[in-house]
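Ticket #4471: structure output looks truncated?

Reporter: J.K.
Steps to reproduce: submitted the chain below (169 residues) through the standard prediction queue, then opened the result file.
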Amino acid sequence: MRPLKLTMSAFGPYAGRTVLDMDRLGRQGIYLITGDTGAGKTTIFDAITFALYGEPSGDSRDASMLRSKYALPETPTEVELVFAYRGKTYRVRRNPEYERPAKRGGGTTMQRAEAELEYPDGHLVTRTRDVTAAVTAIIGLDREQFSRIAMIAQGDFRKLIQASTEDRK
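Returned output as attached by the reporter:
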């Protein structure tokens, strides 16, 4: 799986709409995301994993924590990931459940969690569980496997290289 484009809106520390055109990084397949503490590196991992599986990359966070506290109330919280796998391009979009201004009257309402996966042929899958199952089938990895294999978050690389052969399997 190669991420091509990641779009985040009101997600983590990103208050507005942020687009990462990862296709510009080339086709070598390994990317190093680096920056100062608090720069949003883990948020990028969380956004990719959330788009694919509906959960952040780490076990210490959950989807209810993903809305940016810096976002304007009317800014939607969502993530969209365009990715390539085995020569085909897919698009997946998700939003967590979060409180937003009501469209009618005053006050607020809960925006329910939603997901959408678009296949290369234009076929759409729209239920959150179905999108997660479809992504798992396409990539062949569940969230835990993906987080361990495809994305080695800060601090986990040392664990990986020091792990026994059995644990690395």
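Triage note (M.O.): checked the attachment and the full token line is present. The beta strands are 2-11, 14-21, 78-85, 88-95, 98-101, 108-111, 114-118, 124-125.
Status: closed, working as intended.
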